[in-house]
Amino acid sequence: MLIDPVIRDAILLAVIWTGYFVIHSLLASLRIKGWVSEHKPNLMPAYRLTFNFIAVILLAAPAWLLYTGHKTVIWQFNGPALWLMNGIAVMALIGFMVSLRYYDGQEFLGLRQLKAQEKRIEDQENLHISPFHRYVRHPWYSFALMLIWTRPMDSLMLITAVFLTLYFFIGSRLEEEKLKSYYGDVYKTYITKVPGLIPLPWKHLSQTEANELMDEYQANQGR
Predict the structure, then answer these.
(1) pLDDT single digits (tens) 139-165
(2) Dihedral angle computed from the Cα positions of residues 3, 164, 72 and 58, in that order, rounded to the nearest 10 degrees
(3) CB-side exposure of 126: number of CA atoms within 13 Å?
(4) Lower Cβ count inside 10 Å, N or C end of the chain?
C-alpha cells in the first residue's frame, strides 16, 4: 500500500528532527565532553567550534526536506492578523539583535576556547543577567518561539515548529542542569525567580534584585 507523500514526508521529517536533537543533546552533554577531556584532551580547545559546525551542517537535512518535501497548508494569516504576526516577528528579530551585545560571541562560537587552548569542559563565560534575562531565563529560545509560531504553517513547518518547541523546553532544562553545576546556588535562586521561556508579569527580577544576585556571584567567585 502506497503512503500518501504528505504523510510520508511528515514522518520522515519527524525522524530527522528526532535524530538531530538526540545528536545535539549528546554532544552538548557534560558526559561526552568529559570523555573527550579525559581521553582526547588535545581536542577540547576546538570542541565548541566543532560542535557548532556539526550543528549547522546537520541542519541541511531538515532544511532540504522543508524546501522540497510534499506538504499541505495548515493555516495562513491575512489582513490584521498578518500585520500582527509580522509585527511580533519583527519585535523578536529586534530583540535578538539587541541581545547580542550581552553575549560573548567568541565564547559562544568557540573561537575564544580555541585561541586560549582551553581544555576545561565548563563554559568559560561568567554568569550575567541582561535586561532580557530578568524576564526569561532563555531569551534566544523565547525569541525563536515568537518567530516560529507567527509564520504561516504547512504540514512540514508544523512538524518543525512542534519539535523545536519541545526541544527548547527539554533542552533548556538539560542546559540548566549544567548551569547549576557552573554557577551553584546563585543560579538555583535565579531559576526560582524568573520563568524559563514565557514571560510572566508577576515573576521577574528588578534591576536591584539582579544586581544583588550578581554581587553574590562575584563574591562566591572571589572565595
Answers:
(1) 999 999 999 999 999 999 999 999 999
(2) -60
(3) 11
(4) N
